[in-house]
Structure formats: C-alpha cells, structure tokens
Specification:
Chain lengths: 353, 801
C-alpha cells in the first residue's frame, strides 16, 4: 500500500459548520406547554382580525338594482322585450328611480355586474391580440389568428381591436340624476369616468397606434371595427386621451374577469357637490339598454358602493377568519382538557419522542 | 493511435498500456516486466509479468521483432482480470500462455525501461473495457414507492381529466350553446363531445404538474420478473440534487475520516442515501472488517510442539528475537508494529539445528507470492498481496530465513546467513476452492520438494498415513489456536523423486496447452501431486479487532438491526471473534450450531433447533405461533414478535451448501431470521452472495453488506447497499461498493446519522413536494367548475381572486 505522505491530511474534510452539519438549527418540540398557548394566541388573533374585517365589510354600503328586464321586474322589461331576437338590438332607454333616506357616504363607486357571463372561458380569453392593443402598427394590420373569427371583417379588412373580447364590449351606459327636493328638477350628478382602469393597463399595456398627420382616425384607416360595434374604436370618446385602445371602458372590459359573475367599475362619484357621497334625496339612473344577456340567462345589475381600507364589500374573509379562530380556541380547550386529564401518561409519551 | 490486434508495440517506463498485450520481451533480466494495476483493480502493489523465454530472445531488435510471425489462439474477450488462456504457435512449436504473460490495458509500466508486446485484444475487447459499465442499477425503496405513487397519481390525473372533459361536454351543450353571441364555435369543433375530447387533453397538460415526472423516463429490466419491462418514472431532478448534497455530507464528515490512512468516507453512489436509514440486516465480513487485518505471527506448532506460548508482555522484552536483524526491521512495512515473539525456545531450536524447525521456516520463506524490492537504501521491502503471507514471510525473515528475491525460475533466500538459491519448478497457486498453495522447488543439492500451506481441513485430508499421531497433536493445537481467535494455516511438505516429477510436469504442460477444460485438468493434476504430504506443523496469526467494533455492534443490535457474520474462517475462530466483539453474548438464551455433513443431517438439525425455539415459546404464546402452512406469509411479523429472548445461529459453509437448497431453505430462513445473530463460517464468496440474496428475496428487508476483500465483492454487489472497507486487501471491494470508509465503526455514523437524516429530509421534502403539487394543481380543477371546464388557467386571475 502506498499511501503517500504528502496526501496525508490533504483529503481531510474541512472542519466548517456547514460541512460537519453543525449549522445552528431549531426545531420546536410541540409539547403541550408550547402548543396550547399557540392555539389560544392564534385563535384570539384570528378572531380579532376576523371581527375587524367583518365589521369594516359590513360598514360598506351597497345599493343594487337588477335591470335585466325579466318580466315584471322593472321598466327595462320593455327594452329587454324589444331587443329579443334582434341583432343588433335597437337603441332603447329605461330608468331606475331610487331614494336615499340619508347620506350615502363617499367615495361612491358605480359598478355594473354581469352574471352567468363566461369571460373566463379559455376560448374567449385567448381571443385577443395584445400586440395590436399595445399600438404596434404591424399588428394593427395583421391580427393574430387567435382572434378568429373576429380577425378579418367580411370585407377582408383587419379588425381593430380584434377578437371576441373586444367584439363583446359592454355597451350599456348610465347617467345619474339627483332630485334635490320633492317635485324638483333632476340635476345630473357628474360621473368621473377616468381613472377606472389599472394604471399599468392604461399607461403601458394599451397604447394607440402612432398618429397619422395628427389624426387617430387616419391611423386606423384600413381597419374595420368589430362586427358588434356601432362606431369605430377611435370614436369611442371625443377625448383624445380616452379614445381608441386607451378608452377606459374598453380597457376595463379587456381585463377579463375570473368568475362568471363579475363586477366592473363604471365610474367614480367624487366631483362637485358629491365629494362627500350622495346626499339624501331622490335619484334617477338613465340606462341606455343595448347589451343582450337574456339569451344566455345572464343578468345585468347596477351597483352603488362605497369602499373601505379592505376594498369592496366582502364578508367572506372576515367570516373565514372568525371560523378558523373559533376552531383554534375550541381545539385548544379540547387539548387542554386532554392534557390535564392524561397528563401522567403524557409525560411518558414525551419521553419516547 | 490505431492499435490493431497483431500489432507489436513498444512501451516505456511509466507509460499507460493501451491494449491487452502479450509480453514479448523487456529490458529486465528474464524479460520481466513490472506493472502497477491500480487503475484496473485498485491494488497498488507492483506485480510482475514475464515473457515466454522463446520470445524474450527477440530483445529490442526491431528487425527480428518485425519478423515475428507467431500465431496466438486464445479465449474470447471476457472480463476476468486474473485469467487468460491461450496458445502461441511459433516456429513449429506450441507455447501455452497464461495471465503471467499478459499486460492488460490500464496498467502502468514500472521499473522497466522498455518492453515489447503484441496486441491480443484492442479497443472494446480489452478486459478493462469489458469490466466497465456493468454496474447494477440500485434503487431505494423510496424510489420504488415513488414509482407506484406516480402510477396512481397518473391514474388520478386521467380521472380528473375525464371528469372535466365530461363537464365540458355538458357545459358546452347546456350553457355554452346559449352563449354563442359572445362565445363562437370555431370551425371544426362544433360539437360538444369533440370539445370535451379536446378539453381532456388540455387538462392532462394543465394538471400534469402534480405528477412528479422527471424529464427522463427510463426503462429498466426488473431483475426479479425477468423480461418484464417496467417504466420507472423517476422523481424530479430535485430529489437527485438533495441526494447529491447528502452524499457530499458523507464525504465531508470528519468523524468518518480515518487519519491513520488519510482516507475520508466516500459515497460512491449518490442515490442510496435514504436507504441507509432503513437497514434491517447487516452482513459483515470478519477479516479486515471487524478485525484490523494487520496480521502478526503469534504462535506456531512445529512437529507437535507449540512455540510462542509464554506471553509475558514486558518481562522478556530485552532478550527478544526482534533485534536479530535491526536494519531490515526498520524498513519493514509494518515497522511500527514491530515483530514480537515471546518464546525463546524457538530461537534455541533454530540454533540447535532442529531439521523440522528449519524446514518449517524454509517453507515459510519459499511458499508465498510475496515480491521483494530493494529501496534506495538497499533494504528489503516486501510487496504483499495478502497480509497473512506478509506476516509469515516476515516471521521467517526474523528467524533467519530471509526471502531475498525471486525470478520466474528461482527463489533466493538467505538461510541463517548463507545465500541459497532454489530452482522454482512449479507454482500451484491459491484459490478459494483449493484453499491452499504449493511450490515445487529443487534445492542446490538437487532434491525436489513440494512445500504446501493451506487451510487445515483441506490439507489434513492430503497427509501421508504415517502422520496420524502428529495429526492429532497438531489438530489439538489448532483448535487451541482457533479458540483464541487466531487464524491458522497448516504447513506440510513432500519429497518428490525426479522421475515422478518429470512425468507429472509433462502432463501439466500438456494440460496447459489444452484448449478445452484446461482448468479442470490442471486442478486434477494439482490434486494428484499434493498428496502423501508430511505434516510439519501449523501457524497461528493474530488479527486484532478494529477499534470501536464492540460499541458499533452493540448499538446496531439496540437498533434492532440483525448482524450476520459471513467469514471464511474456522468455526472456532468465528465464534471466538463473535464473542470478542459482542455479536454473541453469554446472555443469549441459546446458540444453535448447525454443522451437519449431509443434507439429512442439516435438515434434522435445523428442525431440532426450530422445535426447540418454537416449542419453548408455544407454552406462553398461546397459539400465536403460526401454523405450518402460513409460515411463509406471516414470517415477517408474527413469528418475530412471539419469540422472546436472544438466539444465535452458527452454521458452517458445508451445511450452508445443503441448507441453501430449495427444500430446506425456508427452514433456514425462518430460523435465521428469528435469531439475533447468525454466524456463517467457512463460506465461499458465492455462498456469501447467496445468503444475502436469500434474505433479500424472501424477506422484505433492506440489507447491507460490508466487507473489504475481493471475496466480498459478490456479496457487496447483491445487497441493497454495499460498503467497502478501504483497508489492507486491495480495493476491489471498494470499487464494487456504494459507500466506502476505512473503519467498521464508521458504519454507526453512516447509518444512524447520515442514513437517518437523509431519510427524514427526503421524506419531508417529498411530503412537501406532493403537497405543493396538489395544492397548486387542484386549483385548476376547482377553477374548471367556474370557467365552463374550458381548460383556462386560474392563476392568471390571481389578483382578482
């Protein structure tokens, strides 16, 4: 055996905390004296948190109105009947009257809600061209194949914006009128329609194509609007910062919802006399009824809601915390009883561990 | 370098050999060539090869070498490194070739300035290449569990996909159909059923993340079910990374680093770490594993007289024999364990010139395979392949019979100051079946003598009938030696007359030249000449227990790990060592010894032992003892639990051969598995492997084999985990092993620290892995119910949810 003298010690492993697995480590021994207080503490903390969440959620006021127009529900029935089986449905208006007995604490948000509407269906969700929406000139003329059958119009022109999502843009519109005194005239409540989309969507993800001779309309020349649209995309709004692909209603619609029942923000009420909220009095919402949902059993709702630090109304989170917290405390008591009852045997068990 | 078969190539000192060569000539006298085979078998001692005398005349004359037109007929390429058979036909004569004439690819030429060789095998036919890539693929039980789990999970995945596909069909026809205004049908899928079909595959893709499929799917022939192909789908790469880390922790462990030889522990496979924590059976070799394998010549019995009896550690140190050759002694390979022999009588006998004593020592100096070398200071260094031989030759050297040098034809020794050269006529080598080796030499007076040493059981059968008295006496001495845990060898010689030897030698040469059944013929001839031997005596060599063996064995049994010792030693030696290292203890309720010589005897003994065992317990186990029929099935748990107390089984190789036959295999297994300890003595390497296989195949247990020598390789390979001790006996065991370290006691740390931690960590990882996969993936399943089963990915909406 020739174990050379120079090799001696050379192969000796390093004596470091890592190689010798001596790094400090801590593993809780879940004995009763640790586990029981842990359960009680966690339980109390969860109940506290749950109560907080529940009450702040309950403090949020909501006012909701279903204007789908199923027979006998509202005066929108007329519109619903009129639109039955006709595409595109005729322009129709209806209204919702409501009275606020007291101040509706602001800031007030106006949402519309659709039910049984599958924006989350995969075939629906992929039917869009993000590069077109980001203003790329080439994509404007050549929408991706995922957009089919809303890729090219029957005349062979590229559709802008292409795809099923854009084609199904929600096109009801609302205006809010306030009657200050009984019998008085209605005054329009200013609705802030800007700032309803995500900042990143509005500023980054959605961009208009480069203007041609300072005109957006020229930039979109040679494209066709989606078949369901009444007007081209550059005419969605007269405001140059809110038209084309960066129209905020459009941007909001294009961020598809995760569940078949969803709300989308329509406007915020925070201007003029309404910064503090909606004051006491009678109100009327004028609804332009365009969007057909009865064909697939969907519903349309309009919602006024205030918000809190935790966002919109969502009692579930608070309830979930309350339930888990209570369970923790309950289990804590059960284990405490078990612990006291069987303490003697318990000690032996611990030794085995 | 286009080396082809038949080419003659020149090699120089310190060069690697490029192909398997037949040595033709070399620069050294007698055309010797020294090689180092470390790359081949891991042994670092220098070995010698020699050319045939006819070819050695070729010298380095390029022209005559170029004219060499011999024809070699040889065996087909194989992977046996220590065997070669062939015949060289040249100049109308026939010369037989064996391994001694071959230089194999992978060797390094040492101490030889040049040599010429003819290529016999090249490229993939070389023995080195034939040996490579034959490693058996070992997998852990976690891997196997994982494979079944993966199949189940895959089934689960298909079920989910199916449910969602049906859901999709229903949704498309019930809900989606009314939603056409916004959700068109695209061409070619205007059919709810077809949509469902597509959805099925979409969901298989989306949900596949919870099947822990790795990137590769390997097909492995399962060895138990023959040709059955099993698709073993292995775990994610991350599992392998964790295992690699654990292997590094083993390599890095300072507590498994043996400073004595500067060897750290080595995890040679990275895939078995967690299995280390699951070991239930340890199969251990004795020599070199439990013991140090540092042999010291302790005692001998010469002509019926024991020498070396009086062991007084300090008293007689001053007039010890060890200073006889101070110069040699200081360079002795084992100089730090200076040779000590505590008996003046032997020296006196030598001085008095007792012929038997002289013959005894002469035999020790002649009959061995040791190579001598002189180092720069002109001192003798012995290159030994087995430490036993080293101990014996060193002993002879210290008593004045100094082995000096050897050539293929001569051995030179210094007998009490005078140089004597013996002509080496034949060398009958050692193997595990013969268990003996002999040399036939002609001394300067012209007498031909056969010197033989070997296992007593074998050698005693070959003695001349006139040895009766001496035989009984020596046998008593041997049992006495064995009782002290010493390794014993019997020593005998035979005078041969010239004529008889010449006849025999002729037959041997014929046998060598034979092409078929050559080995059998040679073995027969060896048997023929090794008879009517005259007994000289016996030697006893001590092999000390390794440090920490007792503690390790104790903790292994505390952990309910069963220890089986498989050794080639005598029964007495084995039992003795067993007691010494706590494998056998005095508190054991019973020790069964199976030592039958026929199948009937063995089965009878097994039956009795069983009756004894189960009968004793039947009285208080109240029918919990399993019925005969069910034994096989319930062996695992029930029997073991009903048997109380410690039992041990000792069985010898002879009986084991019968017991391993299918008929009584189960009896053996049943009995052995109830016993806390099993000692198998006198077993061959093959039997070692058979025993391991027996337990491995019939008990659902994880086995570990640990050994250090070439004879343990088969056992190491067949066990779930093989451990090689990098010790005295070369490196074959280490090369075949999965883990290697230098001392038996490190087994404790390997199993109880590394094995346990690896298992814990792996299990934690896997549990988390599955939890994570399911948590992430089942979300999609749930979301399917909300998105019309349309294979939409829910994570996209994480901010909205």
């Amino acid at each position: 055996m020739t174990w050379s003298a120079t090799a001696r010690g050379a192969q000796q492993p390093d004596n470091t905390a890592f190689t010798q697995q001596r790094l400090p480590a801590w593993q809780p021994l879940l004995s009763a004296s640790i586990a029981l207080p842990l359960f009680f503490c966690a339980g109390l903390a969860f109940i506290g948190l749950g109560l907080g969440l529940y009450y702040s959620s309950n403090g949020i006021k909501e006012l909701e109105f279903d204007y789908t127009g199923y027979p006998g529900t509202s005066n929108c029935t007329v519109c619903a009947e009129a639109g039955q089986g006709r595409a595109p449905p005729p322009r129709c208006s209806c209204a919702w009257y409501f009275t606020l007995p007291e101040l509706f604490q602001g800031p007030v948000y106006l949402y519309y809600e659709l039910t049984n509407y599958y924006q989350n269906n995969r075939r629906y969700g992929v039917s869009r061209d993000d590069s077109q929406l980001s203003g790329m000139a080439s994509a404007l003329r050549h929408p991706v194949n995922e957009c089919a059958p809303y890729q090219f119009s029957s005349a062979g022109l590229p559709i802008a914006p292409c795809g099923a999502i854009a084609n199904s843009l929600f096109n009801d519109s609302f205006s809010l009128w306030h009657q200050r005194g009984p019998g008085g005239s209605y005054v329009e409540v200013p609705l802030d329609r800007t700032g309803i989309a995500w900042w990143t969507d509005y500023h980054v993800k959605f961009r208009n194509p480069p203007l041609v001779n300072g005109s957006l309309a020229l930039a979109f020349r040679g494209t066709a609007p989606p078949p369901n649209w009444h007007r081209p995309v550059y005419a969605l709004s007269p405001d140059i910062n809110n038209t084309g692909f960066i129209n905020q209603d459009f941007v909001v619609w294009m961020r598809t919802a995760a569940l078949p029942t969803f709300r989308k923000l329509y406007a915020r009420i925070r201007q003029g006399n309404y910064t503090a909220g909606l004051p006491r009095g009678s109100y009327r919402v004028d609804i332009t009824y365009n969007y057909p949902v009865r064909a697939f059993g969907g519903q349309k709702r309009i919602i006024f809601s205030s918000i809190s630090w935790m966002g919109g109304k969502n009692p579930f989170l608070g309830i979930a915390y309350l339930v888990v917290g209570s369970l923790c405390i309950l289990m804590g008591f059960v284990m405490l009883v078990v612990y006291i009852r069987f303490q003697d045997q318990h000690d032996e068990d611990e030794d085995e561990e | 370098m286009n080396v082809k078969v038949g080419d003659i190539i020149k090699l120089e000192n310190n060069q690697f050999v490029a192909a398997d060569l037949l040595l033709l000539s070399s620069s050294e006298p007698h055309s010797l060539c020294y090689i180092e085979t470390a790359e081949l078998d891991g042994e670092t001692n220098i070995k010698v090869r020699h050319a045939l005398s006819v070819t050695s005349e070729l010298g380095e004359e390029i022209s005559s070498l170029a004219e060499f037109d011999g024809t070699v007929v040889c065996e087909a390429p194989n992977n046996k490194l220590d065997k070669f058979t062939g015949v060289l036909f040249w100049k109308d004569s026939k010369h037989c070739l064996n391994n001694e004439n071959m230089i194999l690819r992978g060797c390094v030429i040492r101490n030889t300035s040049w040599c010429f060789g003819m290529v016999i095998f090249a490229g993939p036919d070389t023995k080195l290449m034939q040996n490579s890539g034959k490693t058996k693929f070992k997998r852990t039980s976690i891997d196997r569990l994982m494979n079944t789990l993966v199949v189940w999970i895959f089934g689960f995945l298909v079920c989910l996909g199916f449910i969602l596909a049906i859901g999709n069909s229903i949704w498309e026809s019930e809900v989606g159909d009314q939603f056409r205004t916004f959700l068109f049908w695209s061409e070619g899928e205007k059919n709810a059923v077809f949509s469902g079909f597509l959805t099925f595959w979409s969901y298989i893709i989306i949900l596949n993340t919870f099947v822990p499929i790795s990137l590769y799917v390997s097909t492995v022939c399962s060895d138990t079910d023959g040709v059955f192909l099993s698709f073993s789908i292995l775990m994610d790469e991350s599992m392998e990374v964790i295992r690699l880390g654990h292997s590094y922790f083993i390599n890095w462990d300072q507590k498994m680093y043996y400073s004595g030889k500067a060897t750290p522990a080595q995890a040679r496979t990275t895939t078995l770490n967690e299995e280390l924590g699951q070991i239930q059976y340890v199969f251990s070799d004795k020599t070199g594993t439990l013991t140090q394998n540092i042999m010291t010549f302790k005692k001998c019995s010469i002509n019926g007289k024991i020498y070396g009896e009086e062991q007084d550690d300090l008293g007689q140190q001053t007039n010890m024999t060890k200073k006889k050759e101070p110069v040699d002694f200081s360079v002795d390979p084992q100089a730090d364990r200076a040779f000590q022999f505590f008996d003046q009588h032997l020296i006196e006998s030598i001085k008095l010139g007792d012929p038997k004593v002289h013959e005894f020592l002469r035999l020790l100096a002649l009959c061995h395979t040791v190579m001598s070398q002189e180092d720069s200071a002109g001192q003798l260094i012995y290159q030994v392949q087995s430490p036993d031989e080293g101990a014996l030759v060193t002993a002879a050297r210290n008593f004045g019979f100094i082995f000096k040098s050897r050539t293929p034809e001569t051995i030179t020794i210094e007998e009490l100051g005078t140089l004597v050269t013996y002509q080496l006529l034949a060398f009958l080598d050692f193997n595990n079946i013969r268990k003996r080796m002999s040399v036939i030499v002609r001394n300067p007076e012209g007498q031909i003598k056969l010197y033989s040493k070997g296992a007593d059981t074998i050698l005693f059968e070959k003695l001349h009938s006139s040895n009766e008295d001496l035989l009984t006496l020596t046998s008593d001495h041997l049992s006495e030696f064995a009782g002290e845990g010493l390794r014993t060898l019997a020593i005998a010689y035979r005078d041969l007359d010239d004529k008889y030897f010449k006849e025999w030698h002729k037959m041997l040469e014929d046998a060598h030249a034979a092409t078929d059944e050559r080995d059998e013929q040679i073995a027969g001839l060896y048997e023929e000449i090794e008879r009517d031997l005259m007994l000289l005596g016996a030697t006893a060599i001590e092999d000390k227990l390794q440090e920490g063996v007792i503690e390790t064995v104790t903790s292994l049994s505390l952990a309910n790990i069963k220890i089986w010792v498989l050794t080639g030693d005598k029964q007495e030696t084995a039992i003795n060592i067993g007691y010494a290292c706590n494998i056998l203890t005095d508190d054991m309720n019973d020790v069964f010894v199976i030592a039958g010589n026929t199948a009937e005897e063995v089965s009878e003994e097994l039956r009795k032992a069983k009756e004894n065992l189960f009968g004793r317990n039947r009285s208080f186990s109240n029918g919990h003892v399993v019925s005969e029929k069910k034994q096989q099935l319930e062996l695992d748990s029930v029997v073991e639990e009903t048997i109380t107390g410690d039992y041990a089984l000792i069985i010898n190789g002879h009986s084991l051969a019968y017991a391993l036959e299918s008929g009584i295999k189960n009896d053996l297994l049943e009995l052995a598995c109830v016993c806390k300890t099993v000692v198998c003595c006198r077993v061959t390497p093959l039997q070692k492997a058979q025993v391991v296989e027996l337990v491995k195949n019939h008990r659902n247990a994880v086995t570990l084999a640990i050994g250090d020598g070439a004879n343990d390789v088969s056992m190491i390979k067949s066990a779930h985990i093989g451990i090689g001790i990098s010790g005295q006996e070369g490196l074959q065991a280490v090369l075949a092993s999965d883990y290697s370290f230098a001392q038996f006691r490190y087994l404790q740390r390997l199993l109880f620290i590394h094995g346990r931690w690896s298992y814990f960590r792996m299990c934690k990882f896997l549990r988390y892995f599955f939890y994570k996969n399911f948590a992430f993936t089942l979300v999609h399943f749930w979301f399917g119910f909300f998105c019309g089963f349309s294979a939409q990915v829910g994570k996209k909406y994480i901010f909205f949810l």
